[in-house]
Design goal:
12 helices, single chain, alpha/beta, six-stranded mixed beta sheet
């Protein structure tokens, strides 16, 4: 049986579409998504309203949730075991959207889903949580998200799952990280094009080494030592200077520099080893 694992980035389309459906005098219609206290109160104490939002989404899931629109179209012909992993932000709005999505999938009659607790990453609306250096904390959170997604994708692939990344919803920084995780791990990345309203699957956008670069990767990978140094490094870097530089730029190889900031050794990175294994056909 085919096993699928979908990592889905969660935005706020459920809330914004719900707001659009309300009358002008409704308190919620023009309430800012950044009013975390207001949405936290709804999440904690307004069960009837949450149920109403759920019913609103259930009536037209394709039209009213960007996440469901892309995901449900992607699994339309699936007949295997489907696992879903939502990635949301540390905001009340995101928690509401994840809660609604989880409830919708749990109540779905056609498929049986396994749904995992979502990874929370920094949101733009959590100023209270951030310290003095908000930008630094946000960037560190995005980097942590990327590492986490790469790790979980590799883990599920080893368990025999076909892994998909769905970056349709969410903040731009999170969308970029989600897509990068898919490209780095060789997983399929898909989303809904707003104008075409069709499901788009990205071609592999990660850099694929050319013949001479692959030669260098093979040499590096077969070295018992971590780095090539000394005469080996001098000779190879003289003959493959451009290749070394390109591998370094794309994170497949890595220079190390001396006190005068001159490169004196080079190694293959973990990303380089993954790409090399793919080129050899050892992994999908």
């Amino acid at each position: 049986m085919k096993k699928e694992f979908h990592v889905i980035n969660v935005g706020a389309s459920i809330i914004t579409n719900y707001q659009k459906s309300l009358k002008e005098n409704d308190e919620i219609k023009n309430k800012s998504l950044s009013d975390n206290e207001f949405w936290r109160e709804i999440l904690s104490n307004k069960k009837d309203l949450l149920n109403h939002i759920y019913e609103f989404i259930s009536e037209k899931p394709f039209d009213r949730s960007a996440e469901l629109n892309s995901f449900l179209k992607k699994i339309e012909n699936s007949d295997g075991h489907i696992e879903v992993y939502f990635v949301g932000t540390k905001t009340a709005v995101s928690e509401i959207c994840v809660k609604i999505l989880k409830q919708y999938l749990e109540n779905n009659k056609r498929y049986k889903f396994t749904i995992y607790a979502h990874k929370e990453v920094p949101g733009y609306f959590m100023n209270v949580v951030y310290g003095e250096d908000k930008v630094k904390e946000f960037i560190e959170g995005i980097a942590d998200m990327l590492d986490h997604l790469i790790e979980i994708a590799e883990k599920k692939k080893k368990e025999g799952y076909k892994v998909y990344f769905n970056p349709t919803g969410g903040f731009k920084a999170h969308v970029i990280s989600m897509a990068l995780a898919g490209f780095f791990t060789g997983c399929e990345v898909y989303y809904i094009h707003e104008e075409f309203r069709d499901l788009i699957t990205f071609p592999p956008l990660f850099y694929l080494p050319k013949r001479k670069e692959q030669e260098i990767l093979e040499i590096l990978n077969n070295k018992p030592e971590k780095y090539i140094v000394g005469k080996d490094f001098k000779d190879l870097s003289a003959n493959y200077k451009d290749e070394f530089d390109r591998l370094s730029i794309f994170g497949l190889g890595e220079y190390e520099f001396d006190e005068e900031n001159k490169p004196y050794r080079f190694r293959i990175t973990s990303k380089g080893k993954i790409i090399l294994a793919k080129l050899r056909g050892e992994i999908d």
